[in-house]
């Protein structure tokens, strides 16, 4: 009887061992080749759908059942040497939150347009009353002039009390709100390839004062695997080497997703602001949007 129980335990441990191996092999995305659009297409396909969208080419729609907002759902802000950096708990988060841009479509929801330029986050930052606020940048928008020639639609914005900006469960403390009298935070750095400006967010000294904690920015180190993570005082970032233009020209045929569908032709003109979401849950949520009064601490439902 004891021998049978021992054999059963060994078999169970063996099964568990191989299950763990299998699970760990699916967690990381390893890309040995230089970064191209084909890498985006292949690695994001298991997590969403590619759509041929008029004016933008192939765009990606994440396969998420619940309400989703870029730079809010399932992630948090981390202070790094490059500024406030978004770290996502999605396996695919290494790409859409650091390359390319997001925009909203009434039919499909949030869509991501690939791009080669890496930054800590492609967002615009501001502050209003006792809240920090941020919104994803739409395609072709220069962050340095966002408040002068273009402002995000109201529902793009997320507001977080100053004291909670470092919260690891940000979606529990951030709230939606109208744009109101937002004061831009004009702190910028440039990317390493084409020296494009990106917003670094609130000054660390200001956040220290608001949160009454010491902010110690971590260094960023490129690694050859995903997901991104913070470990031992550094942020490990999956940032493959970019393919050179000459190398891309030698590639044939033109890169494209293995599976994609065509968007309907009745879409917004390219570059037009997204309109208010129409799905019932989003509509109800946005209808309740109100300007945040000073000092209020509200949880996002």
Task: Write the topology of this structure.
Blueprint: H1 2-27, H2 37-44, E1 48-53, E2 57-62, E3 75-80, E4 83-88, E5 101-105, E6 109-113, E7 123-128, E8 131-136, H3 146-149, E9 158-161, H4 170-173, E10 183-184, E11 188-190, E12 197-199, H5 204-211, E13 219-223, E14 229-231, E15 234-238, H6 245-250, E16 260-262, H7 280-287
Parallel strand pairs: 1-16, 13-15
Antiparallel strand pairs: 1-2, 3-4, 5-6, 7-8, 7-10, 8-9, 11-12, 14-15
Describe the structure.
- With 301 residues, the protein is α+β, with helices and mostly antiparallel strands.
- It contains 7 helices and 16 strands.
- It has helices spanning 2-27, 37-44, 146-149, 170-173, 204-211, 245-250, 280-287; strands at 48-53, 57-62, 75-80, 83-88, 101-105, 109-113, 123-128, 131-136, 158-161, 183-184, 188-190, 197-199, 219-223, 229-231, 234-238, 260-262.
- Strand 1 (48-53) and strand 2 form a beta hairpin.
- Mean pLDDT is 78; it is low at 1-28 and 265-301.
Task: Please name the defining characteristics of this protein.
single chain; 301 residues; alpha+beta; four-stranded antiparallel sheet; three-stranded mixed sheet; 16 strands
Distance between the termini: 54 Å
Q: What is the chain-wise order of helices and strands? A: HHEEEEEEEEHEHEEEHEEEHEH
Shape: globular
Strand content: 15-25%
Largest sheet: 4 strands, antiparallel
With strands numbered from the N-terminus, the spatial order across the biggest sheet is 9-8-7-10
What's the tally of helices?
7
Low-confidence stretches: 1-28, 265-301
Helix percent band:
10-25%
Backbone CA Rg: 21 Å
* Structural class computed from helices and strand pairing: alpha+beta
- Number of extended strands: 16
User: Mean pLDDT, as a whole number?
Assistant: 78
């Amino acid at each position: 009887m004891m021998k049978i129980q021992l054999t059963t335990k060994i078999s169970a441990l063996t099964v568990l061992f191989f299950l763990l191996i299998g699970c760990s092999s699916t967690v990381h995305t390893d890309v040995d080749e230089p970064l191209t659009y084909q890498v985006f297409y292949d690695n994001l396909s298991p997590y969403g759908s590619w759509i041929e969208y008029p004016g933008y080419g192939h765009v990606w729609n994440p396969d998420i059942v619940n309400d989703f907002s870029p730079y809010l759902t399932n992630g948090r802000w981390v202070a790094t040497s490059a500024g406030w950096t978004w770290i996502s708990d999605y396996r695919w988060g290494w790409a859409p939150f650091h390359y390319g841009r997001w925009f909203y479509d009434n039919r499909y929801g949030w869509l991501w347009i690939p791009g080669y330029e890496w930054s800590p986050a492609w967002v615009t930052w501001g502050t209003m009353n006792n809240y920090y606020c941020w919104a994803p940048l739409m395609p072709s928008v220069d962050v340095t002039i966002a408040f002068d020639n273009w402002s995000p639609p109201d529902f793009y914005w997320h507001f977080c009390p100053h004291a909670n900006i470092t919260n690891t469960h940000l979606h529990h403390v951030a709230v939606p709100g109208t744009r109101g009298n937002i004061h831009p935070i004009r702190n910028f750095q440039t990317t390493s390839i084409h020296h494009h400006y990106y917003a670094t967010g609130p000054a660390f000294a200001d956040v220290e004062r608001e949160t009454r904690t010491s902010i110690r920015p971590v260094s960023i180190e490129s690694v050859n695997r995903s997901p991104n993570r913070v470990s031992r005082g550094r942020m490990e970032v999956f940032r493959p080497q970019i393919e050179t233009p000459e190398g891309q020209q030698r590639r044939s045929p033109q890169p494209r997703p293995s599976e994609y569908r065509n968007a309907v032709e009745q879409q917004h003109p390219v570059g037009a602001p997204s309109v208010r979401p129409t799905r019932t849950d989003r509509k109800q949520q946005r209808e309740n949007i109100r300007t945040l009064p000073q000092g209020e601490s509200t949880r996002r439902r």
